[in-house]
Write a structure and sequence with these properties.
The strands form three sheets. Strands 3, 4, 5, 6, 7, 14 and 15 form a seven-stranded mixed beta sheet that branches. Strands 10-9-8-11-12-13 form a six-stranded parallel beta sheet, sandwiched between helices. A two-stranded antiparallel ribbon has the order 1-2. The chain has helices at residues 41-48, 115-118, 122-135, 152-164, 175-183, 197-204, 218-227, 249-254, 268-284, 300-308; strands spanning 2-6, 15-19, 29-39, 65-72, 84-87, 98-102, 106-108, 143-147, 167-172, 188-191, 210-215, 229-237, 257-260, 291-296, 315-319. It is built from ten helices and 15 strands. The chain folds into two domains: 2-121 and 289-319, Alpha-Beta Complex (Quinone Oxidoreductase, Chain A, domain 1); 124-264, Rossmann fold. The chain is α/β, with parallel strands linked by helices and 320 residues long. The chain is globular. 31% of the residues lie in helices and 27% in strands. The model has no long low-confidence stretch (mean pLDDT 97). The structure holds NADP nicotinamide-adenine-dinucleotide phosphate.
Length: 320
Amino acid sequence: MKAIRVHEFGAPEVMKLEEIPAPQPAAGQVLVRVRAAGVNPADTYMRSGGYAIKPPLPYTPGVDAAGIVEAIGAGVTRAKPGDRVYTSGTLTGAYAELAVAQETQVHPLPERITFPQGAGVYIPYGTAYHALHHSAKAHAAETVLVHGASGGVGIAAVQMAQALGMTVFGTAGTEKGLELAKREGAQQVFHHGRAGYAEEILQATGGRGVDLILEMLANVNLATDLKLLATRGRVIVIGNRGEITINPRELMARRASIRAFTLWAVTEAEAADIHAGLTAGLGNGTLRPVVGKEIPLAEAPRAHKEVMESRAFGKIVLIP
Ligand code: NAP
């Protein structure tokens, strides 16, 4: 089978399309024929070698995939050949024609969701779910600012918060991104690159502030975020690419808090919640992954460059 292989950490070009033996599922494992693989910023951090998670070399990148179960190992009860599934990680890597996953890493993909959409489920929607429900404990009567509402996690968070009944604000850095955030459910949108956007957000709350901020770029926005919070507001740090100075007094004055997480560390019980919520939302149409670009598997290096430039207006997915 064809798969992307990384033999050394480095620039996107270290990813090469190679012919390697097809993996076989052992007991408790599932073999998935990958129809689309999702490209996430974390895939690029891992490939560069500068991330907390360093896979043993050589490896095949990719966590998110969608496809059809091809075969199952002994004792597998949760999936059978022919099932449509999305993955929350695999054992052999998603950027490939076939991938082996633990039985617990495959989840039913409702018929209404295409395979490219399915490749944009776990990391974006799992992160949005964990941020809103487990970390923030969000309520319908609250106002949430999705700071970075035009990307993978942001679109997921906007759809989910709207389904929850919250008042949803979103930010983006282009007119097209602002339109996308609005189309997916943000009631009001703000351009994060324009001077004065923070004042506009405060004004939109009548000066009260927002209850919750889901932050995609904390190293740029965190200090300003604290000034936008209502009493007992929370900032949930989802994305961060550097350091920033904040004034903790902004938190004290509001009894506010900053919380943060990585999706890698969710507990078994949280994972069960996440997949139950995602499967239901995908099935009833409240969660609708947006595919921005489909790129052939061989062009994985281009996909890694483009995901870091943002502006995909939805998920970038690789098609084997
Ligand atoms: P993505 O699809 O590339 O989207 C990036 C988003 O960030 C876009 O909406 C972009 O908006 C926005 N953005 C760019 N500059 C910004 C700024 N100055 N202020 C606010 N937003 C800004 O990436 P993603 O998959 O959604 O992931 C977002 C971030 O979360 C990444 O850093 C990723 O590594 C991280 N993440 C963390 C976890 C976790 O477990 N904690 C899980 C998933 C993702 P425009 O393009 O419109 O400017």
